[in-house]
């Protein structure tokens, strides 16, 4: 039938036309990042790729190619047997590897010879990555952002979830990053994605948004855990109108004890995270907090963390980084209960809907 090739920009706009997107790279490359919806059919797995590469450099490129051909043929045969025996003749896959070369070419050639209509991504993942980075330079400026800010424990992330439930547009960067954005932010059992994967997921989320409607997003720092927020997106957030969520200190403490309930159940993990504050707060203070936590007295520890650490840092950061911080709309919440957040989200969503879109 003849292999077809497609450029990254065209592939991105036409992904829905393919019945499958197949990543022929190794499992670690696939885990680091991939095209939207891609499944992983390695032509060479991590161990095989390393062995062939070592032989190529240290022994002989010709012998390495022979070995690679044997391994690739076996793997491709397994993929065909496992995934394709029931596929109809009109099944149309898009295949890619790192640069659109040998690995995707080997797999695509076999699929083509079977009789499937196969398209290979020209330039492979590398060109897709370039397209994502170019889009991240321009996409953020297309949206009307609403930066939701507020002291730690004021239920900003939960408010974003409530806004989404009310039909408002939301970009939840902490959910994408699998991190709550502070020293205590790592989520149990949920490692953060790689930086490339994070950027692709942000890109996918931006592409799904409607530029004609405002987008609510939490006012983040430059990093969320170990991940960097794309620079143009960060600039857009920091130039946006702000909604300042205010909640009484006691209510914030109560909310955090529920929202970080896994630390209540696993005090040692909480104490381990507190060690990251030793340089800023001093060994004696952190040791006292850990002693109180181990004794089950978490309420005063959380209260002191807020008043002595998080609140001062928050105020300095907001004043320095958010252009409209001093003119922020204030949203007073008595607590972080679901009913309270639902009512606040309903009011915000209604107010946004009543405001006409700014003239182009």
In short:
The protein has 360 residues and is an alpha/beta fold. The chain contains 17 helices and 12 strands.
Write the layout of secondary structure elements.
Elements: E1 4-6, H1 8-13, E2 20-23, H2 27-32, E3 39-40, H3 46-58, H4 61-83, E4 93-96, H5 102-114, E5 119-121, H6 124-138, E6 145-150, H7 156-165, E7 169-171, H8 173-177, H9 195-207, E8 215-218, E9 223-224, E10 227-228, H10 231-238, E11 242-246, H11 249-259, H12 261-265, H13 267-274, H14 278-281, H15 283-294, H16 298-321, E12 329-332, H17 338-354
Parallel strand pairs: 1-5, 2-3, 2-4, 4-5, 6-8, 6-11, 7-8, 11-12
Antiparallel strand pairs: 9-10
Helix pairs in contact: 3-4, 4-5, 6-9, 7-17, 11-16, 13-15
């Amino acid at each position: 039938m003849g292999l077809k090739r497609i450029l990254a920009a065209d592939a991105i706009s036409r992904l829905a036309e393919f019945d499958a997107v197949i990543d022929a790279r190794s499992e670690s490359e696939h885990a680091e990042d991939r095209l939207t919806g891609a499944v992983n059919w390695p032509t060479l797995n991590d161990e095989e790729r390393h062995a062939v590469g070592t032989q190529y450099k240290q022994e002989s490129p010709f012998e390495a190619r022979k070995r690679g051909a044997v391994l690739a043929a076996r793997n491709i045969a397994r993929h065909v047997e496992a995934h394709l025996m029931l596929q109809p003749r009109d099944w149309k896959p898009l295949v890619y590897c790192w640069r659109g070369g040998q690995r995707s070419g080997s797999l695509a050639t076999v699929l083509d010879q079977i009789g499937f209509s196969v398209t290979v991504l020209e330039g492979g993942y590398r060109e897709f990555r370039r397209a994502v980075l170019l889009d991240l330079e321009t996409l953020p400026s297309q949206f009307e952002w609403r930066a939701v800010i507020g002291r730690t424990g004021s239920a900003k992330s939960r408010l974003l979830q409530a806004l989404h439930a009310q039909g408002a547009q939301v970009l939840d960067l902490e959910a994408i990053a699998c991190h709550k954005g502070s020293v205590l932010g790592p989520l149990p059992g949920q490692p953060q994605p790689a930086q490339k994967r994070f950027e692709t997921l942000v890109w996918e989320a931006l592409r799904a948004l409607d530029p004609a409607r405002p987008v609510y997003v939490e006012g983040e720092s430059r990093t969320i855990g170990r991940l960097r927020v794309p620079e143009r997106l960060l600039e857009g957030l920091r130039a946006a109108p702000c909604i300042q969520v205010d909640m009484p200190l006691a209510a914030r403490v109560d909310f955090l004890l529920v929202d970080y309930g896994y630390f209540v159940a696993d005090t040692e993990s909480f104490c381990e995270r507190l060690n990251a504050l030793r340089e800023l707060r001093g060994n004696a203070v952190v040791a006292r907090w850990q002693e109180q936590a181990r004794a089950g007295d978490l309420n005063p520890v959380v209260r002191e963390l807020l008043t002595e650490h998080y609140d001062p840092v928050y105020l300095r950061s907001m004043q320095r980084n958010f252009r409209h911080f001093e003119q922020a709309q204030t949203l007073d919440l008595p607590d972080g209960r679901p009913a309270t957040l639902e009512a606040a989200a309903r009011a915000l969503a209604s107010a946004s809907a009543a405001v006409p879109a700014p003239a182009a």
